[in-house]
Write a structure and sequence with these properties.
Largest interface: A-B, 130 and 131 residues
Shape of chain A: globular
CATH topology of one domain in chain A: Gyrase A, domain 2
Number of strands of chain A: 23
Distance between the termini of chain A: 58 Å
Radius of gyration of chain A: 30 Å
CATH architecture of one domain in chain A: 2-Layer Sandwich
Largest sheet of chain A: 8 strands, mixed
Strand order of the largest sheet of chain A: 6-9-10-22-21-20-17-11
Oligomer: homodimer
Strand content of chain A: 15-25%
Structural class of chain A: alpha+beta
Number of helices of chain A: 16
CATH superfamily of one domain in chain A: GAD-like domain
CATH class of one domain in chain A: Alpha Beta
Chain lengths: 609, 609
């Protein structure tokens, strides 16, 4: 052993002991004939004191930052104690040292606020990983994984490994495939998730399964996506939705406690998908703050059970509103005194290409009881008051209104709400709010193909009350213009998403466990019998031999860690992430392979010119 | 929730409680107007009693084996208690039941001794997994993983995930590769192990890393190999060999305790590679029993420090021995009275193609002090006695002697020793003996290419005392016939294997952490600078920025579980294994992929006719 203690271990009670430490040189501070060195390892930093004699040796063997050093010495009480670090009461008076390895000058500083750009840090990821900020992220990740495993173990879940070399059944996302040398012309796929395997384990009677497991999707990478990512994957038998919700909010509360020391004792809120969309404009609302949407003009037939309030803006000959598919407002608290410059800035914000609106209407609800709006010439004060009241605005608030096509306007208002919430400090990093979103539609309509697609995935069960509707009706949509009147349009899924601070951290469903219903689902998705058999014959087969009712959930582990760590980027919580082109710039992968490899795999390139 | 209790939970103290159970019908036994059903779930079996009224309902809805049932009823004390199962004191008097799902008649019986053949059970793996024997294996596997994680956690190891989509650097085994759609013409590789990543994590200062992780090797599958397998992968910084040995024999002892309740308090034995080969004929000896090899004629120059005893058999004009490269004997205890039939049978056994010897010589050391041998006409009793004595034979033993070429004879004798040990009951399933094998040669000689190959892998460090030899000599072998005289031939590796009952369960090494030495190693393996840079530039780079001394070890997790479970086959300990052609016969994978997938990946098939 190169050391008797770590650099984070020594305390006042070790004074006068002879110890050995090993670690990296963090700083070198020379004062005449003595030198102080901060020696760093994973566990902390210890100050080393090199006296006169050793100082000479140091002159002959100069130490640089990041040199690897082994020292022996005597623990000494410091005269100038450092209260900021746990070892700050002592220093080590060095009696002998060995340079275990030298270091070039690192290409960027190994500090929390580094001068290294993204590309440089990715190329030298092994140095980036030395930074305390990154180390803390990986430690948090390990703590989350440990807490998860303990909770699930205590609740009788078994970690069971599922295979990585499986069959390509591209449904939603694209598969990564792996040519099989032993079966020329054939390919494995890497799993997008262990979905069917965990269901088979339920059929096999394993009752409660979990795995913290890598999954793979060959998608064009958006800002915060990775081609390989990690899931906490769980499945339970003999459960209904309520059982799953209880079990997994329990898991997240346990993680809060273990990792953040937060007692999340309040009840986890629940909201239907329709309410989430109606009140927040998206299916993963951040409920750390209110500012709900007022849907003034509701888009035709999107929200079946919601009331239209078009009369609030109609009959004023304001074309922008009259011609819009939808008009949506929010009341931003305490902003009625925004200047022209400020309202212009928000208008520019919604006109950015990422948001894509043409403009913004505002109503200032002044504290003196008057109303001032950008559309004063179309609407009387009385009308403005009616709109502001409906949006829940109080004196001093600023009502913001967007109008346009349904989807874009809704998304834009959702973003604007989040932006205003952020600007007003209503989205606090250290506040955590969980929310279950429930009752998703089972199907979405795919316009190009005039057919249904599964909103979640093809294994999600409809609500028990909707099973008959599904079985007894044909999924065929005869009249595309009336797809909303098709009985399948209103089928709700037995599915649930867990949302944390506006991020979907987990989602799942009660699964179909009856062959007939599963076949109907595949049929609805446009799979004929041959295709069903080719892709999922094993699952349909399994359902014939006593499949139990079951359901489960998967957490996006990378994202969960990022949110708990107060970050927007999952990349900071992955030891060796890929960039937005799916490249590992440190390894320089992917890369070319040898002619011999092509030959053995019996494939060749077919590059488009 | 479909149940209030599991099928393994109810005891005498639950009598008179109303409970709900759910599970699978194991057996149905009708006795006139009542029916007994054994209901099974993961946790156990509970006997259900259907009284007269429900019996009628059962007649209308007949239950078959593996039907999924939900029942409510009252816990009742049994008159005929079953002491073999924990729930045997009670039964459930059913008041209502629901058939949750039906089952076809399974293609094989779901029992410990099943009538299903291998292929059938693999095709219906989800039914095979229901068998108690398989379930126990997966439970053991989970227990080993849990024990491992707890021990490593307590010893400051951090679970850090390493990537699966990496760079192809085929060294030893063949890589599985993954075409990159976003980087046309380029491929990722699946990791054969996280070797370089864990070393980088040490460079990054993570100090102690572990992972239970899938690895991939595209090899022609031998009987007990899988293309994807699981490793317990560990690495530590600032350690010497002794530290690693202590840490990981501690891990295995902890697993013994947690999983098998065995207190392995004895010291783990250690043996040099040379002694293992000399005394047992292989590098992973089963030391549950003795029966060491007597190398009568040692092959020229293989064992540098060992004594030749050719004089024992020379000068007798027995050509078989005179012409053999090597002659090896063992003394099998208590078998001097084997009949002709028995010695013939052993002779046939060594002549099987798997063993490949031409014959067997035996010497019976009779209890009356006489000697009887198959080569009596060449050797006097005195000579026979000398051989038998040298082999350590006592009165009543049987000496078996093989002669031939070095490698084949050594392997054959190693196999024969194991076979005789097995026949004599010296290899007990419930006895566990650990052994460290140390001081492996760093290099092996590759005859075809007249160069060195790494015996372990290119990152293994030579013994500290051999580093100078390695650095100061050219690896080039100028005279192939004298490769044994090359200074590299005697370099020993700082490597170690952990052997359990004759199986290598883990292996590792102290790593090279100096750029210069690593380059020398790559050079020795025939890699020029450009290739070194292309394949391992990131690692050589990392060694320039303060790499600490480090080392580690990886356990073959599947094999470790199999041995602890008393099985020879790792397949029984993997939930969804592949067959010997690398196929998952349940999924029918690998399989063809769509034209669209080829198109997107810009590859095509190049099948040999």
């Amino acid at each position: 052993m190169y050391r008797s203690h770590t650099c984070g271990e020594l305390r006042i009670e070790h004074v006068n002991q002879t110890v050995a430490l090993a670690g990296w040189v963090q700083t070198v501070r020379k004062f005449g004939s003595i030198t102080f060195i901060d020696l760093r390892d994973r566990y902390g930093i210890t100050q080393l004191l090199f006296g006169e004699e050793l100082n000479k040796q140091l002159d002959e063997n100069p130490l640089g930052r990041e040199f690897v050093l082994q020292v022996t010495g005597i623990v000494t009480e410091r005269s100038n104690k450092n209260k900021n670090i746990p070892t700050g009461d002592i220093e080590l008076t060095v009696t002998a040292f060995t340079i275990l390895n030298k270091s070039e000058v690192p290409p960027f500083t190994i500090t929390d606020e580094t001068d290294g750009g993204d590309d440089l840090r990715m190329k030298y990821r092994y140095l980036d990983l030395r930074r305390n900020a990154v180390k803390k992220n990986l430690e948090l990740r390990y703590a989350v994984s440990r807490s998860t495993r303990n909770y699930l173990h205590e609740n009788n879940f078994m970690d069971i490994e599922t295979p990585f070399l499986i069959k390509s059944t591209p449904e939603g996302a694209r598969d990564f495939v792996v040519p099989s040398r032993m079966n020329p012309g054939q390919f494995y796929a890497l799993p997008q998730s262990p979905q069917t395997f965990k269901q088979l384990l339920m059929v096999s009677g394993y009752d409660r399964y979990y795995q913290i497991v890598k999954c793979f999707r060959d998608e064009d990478l958006r800002a915060d996506r990775q081609p390989e990512f990690t899931q906490i994957d769980c499945e339970m038998s003999f459960v209904e939705q309520e059982d799953i919700l209880n079990m997994f909010e329990g898991l997240v509360k346990r993680i809060f406690k273990d990792v953040k020391n937060i007692d999340y004792s309040e009840k986890v809120e629940r909201m239907t998908w329709e309410d989430a969309m109606w009140n927040y404009g998206n299916d993963k609302p951040d409920i750390r703050f209110g500012m709900p949407l007022l849907n003034i003009k509701k888009p035709a037939s999107v929200y079946v059970n919601k009331k239209d309030q078009s009369e609030l803006v109609g009959g004023a000959d304001f074309k922008v509103f009259d011609e819009a598919e939808t008009v949506i407002a929010i009341a931003v608290p305490g902003c009625s005194e925004y200047t022209r410059k400020q309202t212009d800035e928000i208008t520019e914000w919604v006109k950015r290409p990422q948001i894509g609106m043409k403009g913004l209407v505002f109503i200032k609800v002044n504290t003196d009881g008057t109303y001032k709006s950008s559309v004063d010439k179309f609407y009387s004060e009385e009308k403005l008051k009616a709109i502001a009241d409906a949006a829940g605005a109080k004196a001093g608030d600023l009502v913001l209104i967007l109008a346009g096509t349904e989807e874009r306007t809704r998304k834009a208002m959702s973003e604007l709400r989040l932006e205003m919430g952020k600007r007003l400090g209503m989205r606090k990093d250290n506040e955590f709010k969980l929310l279950w979103v429930l009752d998703f539609p089972l199907f979405e309509y795919a316009e190009e193909e005039n057919r249904w697609v599964a909103r979640h995935h093809p294994f999600t069960s409809p609500k028990p009350s909707d099973i008959a509707t599904m079985i007894n009706n044909s999924p065929v949509i005869t009249d595309a213009s009336k797809y909303l009147e098709h009985p399948y349009a209103n089928i709700k899924a037995n599915a649930y998403d867990l949302v944390l601070n506006g991020n979907e951290i987990g989602g799942g469903s009660i699964r179909i466990f009856q062959r007939q219903l599963q076949e109907k689902m595949f049929e609805a998705l446009g799979m004929d019998e041959a295709e069903q058999q080719h892709k999922f014959g094993f699952l349909l087969g399994a359902f014939e031999y006593g499949a139990p009712p079951h359901g489960g959930l998967a957490f996006g582990f990378d994202r969960l860690c990022a949110i708990l760590g107060g970050s927007e980027s999952i990349r900071d919580f992955i030891a060796f992430p890929k960039n937005n082109s799916g490249r590992d710039v440190m390894l320089d992968a992917p890369s070319s392979i040898d002619a011999k490899q092509f030959d053995e795999l019996q494939i060749k390139l077919d590059l488009k010119q």
